Amino acid sequence: MSDFERQLGDALHDDTGERDRAAGLAAGARRRARVRRTRRRATLGVFAASTAAIVVVGGQVWSHNEVGEDPGAGGDDPSAVLDPLVTCGGADSWPVSAMAQGAVRPTAEEDTRIRDSFAQLRREMPMDAPAELLERGALRAEYVVLVDGPRELVLGLGEWSEQGPGPRASVLTLARDGDAWDAEGWGDCQLQIADQPGRDRVEVTAPKGGVDRETRIITVLATERECTSGRDATPYLSEPEVEETDRQVSVLLTSEAVEGSALCVGNRPVEVEIELAEPLGDRELLDAGAWPPVPVQAAEQP
Predict the structure, then answer these.
(1) CA 51, CA 32: separation in Å to the nearest integer?
(2) 170-216 pLDDT, tens digit each
């Protein structure tokens, strides 16, 4: 059995019950959240393109189909199965590999239909159509298929890679109308790791003055990104998921999604203590909730 297979087996058998129960802990206990799954393995970065959209998150295998799907034999190469799902923040998500090679390669006939929709959008929105269409035209515009559905296509317009969209890139959603595609919506894309069902992304920042790099227990700030009516996030936070390498420490936090409606009144950051295998030292601290993971910066003080 390879090292990767052993790691994947460990992830599949991790106890998730403790993490689920953590949502109900008192605030004081949450501030001393203990990391239960810190392992030294490959950093959360860009993996090679693959055909299986599977990633180990929160002790489970997640795929584009469902939670807990058996990924099958992965061999000795983690890139053969690791392909995180990312999103621009909406309901649609796609594997990282789709941003480089596309979820599918359209046939010549389908490409013609897609470009016909580009031309129609350009005619109807001569000022507000995506920049790629305005600058390069319907026939020369570059795109990749991010999501290929029977009634919907999500396209990445412009320059896309496994790192995400380029400076002038955008996302365009097409809805099927008989044998044609019609533009349904478009806009910029701020990539992040796709949320697990019932969980929302939490931004990880550093307190004023930064984190203590000489101790194994560091304090970070967690800020919910969705509308929560200004609740105290502490009892709703997940256990931190921490990945450590010789050069980087990546932290992933999520929070329990609000049920029903909520007011957007601003969310205050709360402190979370994270235990590392060894002091942070000169290693880079990353927020793994974004894609690609971003360096943890000091939060703006209210």
Answers:
(1) 39
(2) 999 999 999 999 999 999 998 888 877 888 889 999 999 899 999 99
| CB 133 within 8 Å of CB 122 | yes
Contact 267, 228 (CB under 8 A): yes
H/E stretch holding 119 reads helix 108-124
Cα–Cα distance between 290 and 164 in angstroms, integer?
11
Cβ-contact 260, 217 below 8 angstroms: no
User: What domains, with CATH codes, occur in the chain?
Assistant: 3-89+194-295 (no CATH), 98-187 (3.10.450)
Give the strands of the sheet with 192-193, arranged side by side. 94-95, 85-87, 192-193
Predicted pLDDT of residue 301: 55
User: pTM for this structure?
Assistant: 0.59
Q: How far is CA 52 from the centre of its chain?
A: 16
Cα–Cα distance, 203 to 289 (Å, whole number):
7
Whole-angstrom CA distances from 230 to 37, 113, 279 are 30, 46, 33
Confidence of residue 89 (pLDDT cuts 50, 70, 90): confident
Question: Strand pairing of 270-275 and 284-287?
Answer: unpaired
Residue keyed to tokens 């009144």: 265
Quote the distance between the C-alpha of residue 197 and its chain's center. 13
DSSP 140-182: H--EEEEEE-SSEEEEEES-EETTEE-TT-EEEEEEEETTEEE
Is the distance from CB of 249 to CB of 279 less than 8 angstroms?
no
pLDDT, position 183: 96
Say what angle helices 108-124 and 131-140 make with each other, to 10 degrees.
130
Q: Which two tokens stand for residue 56?
A: 């180990």
pLDDT band at 14 (very low <50, low <70, confident <90, very high): very low
What is the C-alpha separation between 144 and 142, in angstroms, rounded? 7
**How high does pLDDT run on average in the chain?**
77
Fill in the amino acid letter for 21: R
Phi, psi of 222 (to 5 degrees): -115, 125
